[in-house]
Specification:
Number of domains: 2
Number of strands: 14
Largest sheet: 8 strands, mixed
Number of helices: 5
Strand order of the largest sheet: 6-7-8-9-10-11-14-12
Length: about 260
């Protein structure tokens, strides 16, 4: 909101709170409260973070300050089976779990100020990224190599992306995953953990929001299962009806909730 608009709003608010009759004040307060509830807006200045599902295992995370992080940006047309549109835009941080073409795009990396592709911890402005070494298979990497699980901390949130995790993990092995606010998890199987293994990981770590990824769609023609194979195993499932969700602390669910996002690309 521009300063002029803020000034006008403040004058109107001052009038209704100080000058208007009590019955008018009551009506105005009720209308204002309803507007705040419907819009999800808070005058308390609560941090809001946006998570957008680009497709396959790629996500764009935007902090309240406008920093943009991309997870596992795919190369359009990878393996002649990935029909998602090319990822556009510039990013402050690009995180890649491994170097397969459906999780790494050189063009996107070239447009990114910082890159994370190895285990460790780094701070990039308002964003902290910590990554952990895991495997892309259940044979300690002998079949498909290594994989990174990454946790982004910003705006008071912890957001985890499990990459192409190919084996079960426990809270003892990855304690920092416990109770993350958002967990992006592969559910399609074959190349990664399957739906049942994903459900077990969700139960183990109890994230507040679970966003499934890496499953078969009209634009992802790998020999993997659809998202329904996972959602049917979960208790609380919401279909967002869009590619994006806005995160605020006040709106985080008390119980683990699966949110299915529509791929943007």
């Amino acid at each position: 909101m521009e300063n002029r608009e803020q000034s006008l709003f403040q004058r109107v608010l001052h009038f209704f709170c100080r000058e208007a009759p009590l019955n008018v004040q009551s009506t105005f307060a009720a209308v204002l409260a309803a507007a705040i509830f419907v819009s999800g807006t808070s005058f308390a200045g609560d941090a809001a973070m946006k998570l957008k599902y680009l497709g396959h295992a790629a996500f764009e995370l935007t902090t309240a300050a406008g920093a943009k992080i991309v997870f596992d940006p795919y190369t359009a047309g990878a393996f002649e089976t990935l029909a998602c549109d090319a990822i556009r835009g510039d990013f402050d941080v690009a995180i890649t779990s491994h170097d397969h073409a459906d999780h790494t795009c050189e063009a996107v990396l070239a447009r990114s100020k910082n890159k994370v592709n190895a285990a460790g911890k780094g701070t990039f402005g308002v964003v902290v990224v910590e990554s952990f070494a895991t495997f892309h298979d259940d044979a300690k990497g002998k079949k498909r190599g290594a994989n990174l699980v990454s946790i982004v901390e910003a705006d008071g949130f912890r957001v985890a992306h499990l990459g192409d995790l190919g084996h079960p993990v426990t809270a003892k092995e990855l304690p920092k995953l416990v109770g993350v606010d958002v967990m992006m998890i592969p559910v399609g199987g074959y190349y990664t953990i399957d739906a049942a293994q994903a459900a077990a990981i969700v139960k183990e770590f109890a994230p507040k929001i679970v966003v499934p990824m890496h499953y078969k769609t009209s634009k992802v023609d790998f020999p993997i299962a659809t998202v329904d194979s996972f959602t049917k195993l979960m208790k609380t499932v919401e279909k967002a009806g869009s590619s994006e969700i806005v995160l605020t602390k006040e709106k985080l669910p008390e119980k683990t909730t699966v949110v299915v996002l529509d791929p943007a690309n």
